[in-house]
Amino acid sequence: MIIGVPKEIKNNENRVALTPAGAKELKKQGHTVYVQATAGNGSGFTDEEYKAAGAEILPDIASVYKIAEMIMKVKEPIESEYSLIKENQLLFTYFHFASYEPLTMAMIKNKSVCLAYETVEKADRSLPLLVPMSEVAGRMAVQKGANYLEKPLGGRGILLGGVPGVLPAKVVILGGGVVGTQAAWMAAGMGADVTILDLSLPRLRYLSDVMPANVRTMMSNEYNIRTLIKDADLVIGAVLIPGAKAPHLITRDMLKVMKKGSVLVDVAVDQGGCIETCKPTTHENPTFVIDDVVHYCVANMPGAVPYTSTLALTNATLPYAIQLANKGWQKACKENNELKLGLNVVKGDVVYKGVAEAFNLPYESVDKYLA
């Protein structure tokens, strides 16, 4: 198979979808790998390293899309890329379709095959290609939240862990999945007073067992959320419904009861956000203020630490990429249900229910293409 790796062009996105080590593995399997010039620079990988691994370097993004049968990316294509995508071309990347209708409609129109990292799912319901970036984002959420609690950046002027004789900050985490768990560990390690909410009692029992003493658990419901955010210094939104839009757990009216200079970090913003007032921001302009509450809503948080993020992501994606390249997407998805669940849009049809429901679009069973 001919595999293309374009340079990411989303604002401040420095990750790359394939490392030189990954290129070498694909080459060993008999595949051809084309990498756009300087695609790996932001993550610390040079064109020379890709060449040494057996990849070929192409000068621009159009050349990569033109020649490749499978495109490997990190973030969803942006508008300038839509016209470059060919009919029947396989795109293997994060899409988060349910949060952005124009992207969905563009991929339907170009009749490409869209296999989304975020909906590849194991039998135990875990999301192996979302986990690495969720781990990064959960830890970063606390780093960023602590930073924006500083007075010069608009925050209350409170140190997350406090000092002897001064109480630490109160951190509320909505969601006890991978993001929430990593955020809780990070906040607890910095000495904060942490409360984590989730809908699952078994999950809360697990978290109660493994978390340090400064982390408490609570059932997630509107009453508890409203009560907790009144005293919260930092609130982290870490809710995920695979392939679907995140529910709004904090609504606009709730901001009025929050402390002036408190901080909201919505990690779910690339799935529409679990905080109603959040809208996607960039690393260039990461925050805005509503009702004296600082909102941090960067949609590609792991892009700020591209070396760590690229290695973590490609460790997870490469085995799946090899299956797709070796067998072709239809055979690979027929034989591996995890990959099958990653298919979102195929040749003009929406084949993932969460995406169809988000925009009231017709839903087609993916089995139509795997028979």
UniProtKB/TrEMBL annotation:
Q: What class of enzyme is it?
A: oxidoreductase
Task: Tell me which UniProt keywords the record has, alphabetically.
Answer: NAD, Oxidoreductase
Give every Alanine dehydrogenase/pyridine nucleotide transhydrogenase N-terminal domain span: 4-137
Identification of the protein by name: Alanine dehydrogenase
Domain named Alanine dehydrogenase/pyridine nucleotide transhydrogenase NAD(H)-binding: residues:
149-297
EC number(s): the record gives: 1.4.1.1
Origin: domain of life:
Bacteria
Member of which family? Belongs to the AlaDH/PNT family.
Reaction catalysis annotation: L-alanine + NAD(+) + H2O = pyruvate + NH4(+) + NADH + H(+)
Q: Which organism is it from?
A: Shiella aurantiaca
GO molecular-function terms, A-Z: alanine dehydrogenase activity
